Amino acid sequence: MLDIKEVFLETFRRGPEDAHFDRLSKEEALDLLRAFEKQGLIHTIWTFKTPFIGGICNCDRADCVAMLAYRYDFKAFFRAEYVAEVSCDACLGCRECLALCQFGAIGFSVMDQKTFIDPIRCYGCGICRSGCEMEAIHLTPRHDLPVARNLW
To answer: Domain 25-144 adopts which CATH fold?
Structure first.
């Protein structure tokens, strides 16, 4: 007799119908994702029948149905397990990262001539890092920041 896990997995033996899909190598996929990051597009992984991945979406606030749903207090996706932080010593104040943040979490201090990231608004997508030539932005585990620890 099959256990419940085997019965569940049996429904996926044949896999999805993919004859009409383009195939990308790992390198092509990574190059494409990096190009999307340079445009400020965030990546979300969508599961249709957990734990199986249904798709990877790359979009911005204006075109993302999941992000638009937040206007109506409907949570379609959650924050990452990380929060972005700026290393002030490395930041030149160029503001390239500001345009990339889809969540409005990055600000600029005129007095310090440095950017900063609001951990409460940060979703931890890390897209801001792709615009920083000085590599002044890094991701910190959300759990390590008390103010953001329980924001999901």
So the answer is: Alpha-Beta Plaits (3.30.70)
